Amino acid sequence: MAEAKLIDGKAFAAGLRTRVAKGVAELATSGGAKPGLATVLVGADPASEVYVRSKGKTASELGMASFDHRLPAETTEAELLALIARLNADRSVNGILVQLPLPKHIDTPKILLAIDPNKDVDGFHPINVGRLGSIAAGAPLDFPVPCTPLGCSMLLADALGSLAGRNAVIVGRSTLVGRPVAQLLLRMDCTVTITHSRTRDLPAVCRSADILVVAIGKPEFVRGDWIKPGAAVIDVGINRIPAEGGKTRLVGDVAFAEARAVAGHLTPVPGGVGPMTVACLMYNTLQEARRASGLPFAAV
Ligand code: GUN
Is the CB of residue 80 below 6 angstroms from any atom belonging to ligand 1? Predict the structure, then answer.
């Protein structure tokens, strides 16, 4: 059997960013406001700093305003809530992204609940979680949807066309990825199974998948013999592991070389799902700016 076709998330994300930049320019010519994205980082986690910087930089590159809020790790919940209240009221801000994880002394659900659902470009507010959870098959996504899951669904639609009737197995039940991916794939008429740490005979369940989405955060956890020949495999994991010569390297949650020999389509790590997250955040921010200007969501 031929090697899996690699799904080039880096190229797809670049195309999406270009289309979003066009949407930003069109919004300006139709009298709409310049989209604004506010990022909030509490503390100085190095990985989170890298993500937040990349979000702000990309927003600026696409013609959006970017507002970068850095707060010390000791920031109280009340102080963070006060900042969110100001951003909710600020008409130049269309998207609010509070980088997770937050320090332990802050109640994350309480913070997410405080964000205006129409500025919730992460799609983590319970209103938006509920909208996604109750969406009808094929209905338009006219509310913010979590960025990484949205990116996964875009890559699958691009690689496979219609997903109707396919068996989709998701490894991992997180609220950030596994569950919203399941909702998106149900909307696209897949038959969806969500698996987790207590699933019996996980390899056998994975082998039933035409589409396998893996978001579990364990390096090279899914092996080649867990994959149905020809399946589409979406690897959401980004894990740094020790490599030769005292160096480190990035690997996904799927054993790449093994999977490549069996799968029909496969996302690489890096360069697969990763670049889609920020591109989809820009997409969500543009859509919320359109809403704020009285315009409907528009496919880009
Ligand atoms: N931390 C890891 N991924 C994400 C994400 O998609 N959004 C936010 N806000 N924080 C994250």
Answer: no
